[in-house]
Amino acid sequence: MSNKPAIILVHGFWGGAAHWSKVILELSRKAYTSVYAVELPLTSLADDVERTRKMIAQQQGPVLLVGHSYGGAVITEAGNQPNVVGLVYIAAFAPDAGESPGGITQEHLPVAAPNLVPDSDGYLWIKRDKFHESFCQDMTRDEGLVMAATQKAPLAGTFGDTISTPAWKAKPSWYQISSEDRMISPENQERMSARLGAKKVITLKASHASLASQPSEVTALIDEAGRATSQT
Questions:
Q1: Which residues contact 192 (CB under 8 A, 6 or more apart)?
Q2: What is the spatial distance between Cα 71 and Cα 91, in angstroms, rounded to a whole number?
Q3: Residues 6 or more apart in contact with residue 140 via CB below 8 angstroms
Q4: What is the pLDDT of residue 2?
């Protein structure tokens, strides 16, 4: 197969680009040579979309965007760039026009909602002692400890930022639901994935951190999207 798309991985709230580390290795083993993980500022949807657009603009050929969690909202807005050929949502928000991650969350509050706490600067954190059970309960406690210590908090206002033009209405999409998710309720994931008209929807018995707890299965879906959008 020739001309596989470049893959740009977009993380969500409470994590950085390194959350994709296992998926990056799996993609490398599948001969994807142009894989990039954006480091978002998590200061506003506009800021995060602009950071992603800049990385998209550096690619000479087609780009497949992959978003985890809030990263799904980012790729929904950034995916309108002309060289973006597809969108993959990993336990992610896929808002419609005028929708925000916060508004969607209110439809079905996730189990771990009480474990979020704001700090004095307006950033929203997962309580350190609740991180493992909230975000990645299907990983080891040691892995949960590292994720808790390195969590990247968003400005709380980012939750309310809305989508203008959802790229999934014009670009092919794929979606992975996490059935044991405590950060984005599975009911919300099912509703969002159903309206995408996705090429494929899979459900994993996984926590919110499916990209780290089940990287092989997540990578297989990304690879399927990569094959479908490859140029021959």
A1: 89, 93, 94, 95, 104, 175
A2: 10
A3: none
A4: 52
**So where are the chain's domains?**
6-228
pTM equals 0.97
pLDDT > 70 in the chain, percent: 99
**37 phi, psi to nearest 5 deg:** -120, 115
| Distance from the Cα of residue 132 to its chain's centroid | 19
Angle (CA) 226-227-232 rounded to 5° is 115
Helix axes 21-29, 215-228, angle to 10 degrees: 50
Q: What is the token pair recorded at 205?
A: 């018995």
Residue in this structure with the two tokens 């990385």, named with its chain if needed: 55
Q: Report whether pLDDT(232) > 80.
A: no
Q: How confident is the model at residue 1 (pLDDT cuts 50, 70, 90)?
A: very low
CB-CB contact of 95 with 101 (8 Å): yes
Contact, 154 vs 71, CB < 8 A? no
Q: Which fold has domain 6-228?
A: Rossmann fold (3.40.50)
